[in-house]
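User: For a reading group we're discussing how well predicted structures match intuition. Take CASP-like protein. Before you show the prediction, I'll give you the sequence so everyone sees exactly what went in.
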Amino acid sequence: MEDVVMVDATAATPAHGWDAAAAVVVAAPQRRRAQDVLERSVSALRGGAWALSLLAFLLMACNEHGDWKQFDRYEEYRYIVAIGLLAFIYTTLQLVRHAVRLTGGQDLQLRTGLLVDFAGDQVAAYLLMSSLSAAIPITNRMREGADNAFTDSSAASISMAFLAFVCLALSAVISSFKLAKQTYV
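Assistant: Thanks. Here is the predicted 3D structure of CASP-like protein, as structure tokens, for the group to look at:
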């Protein structure tokens, strides 16, 4: 690990051999490392949301056990399937966009990209929360009457949607931080 000297640019005097440019040079690697950590964190969170929303979608879409145990007979479960698929598509597009950016390809303008990240993460997260909150009451009522593979799969899908929500909500927090740190001058 490197020894980093913190310099107060306003207190630097020529007698010490430091000037404002030296302070910027010393602080630049730290800032770059912090930005790299934020980028990796957002990518990891979106990757987690990608996998979890795919699981939520697949668990509910495959939840067909005959008679009343068909997910498509309940609009709450159809809603969680639709939103799980939508969150999966959104996170896939975001991960592809990040991969293109890493390989040196063309990306959106910085400000536009930050706004897309922030708004998209928030919308996807709130839609996931909406879908799972719609599916919880019907699942609880069904589990009171019969606890079976259908209700277990429904509960697992709801759990995966909640975890995907957590990943996207944390990603939205990081996106809002990056958006707030952006200078518009």
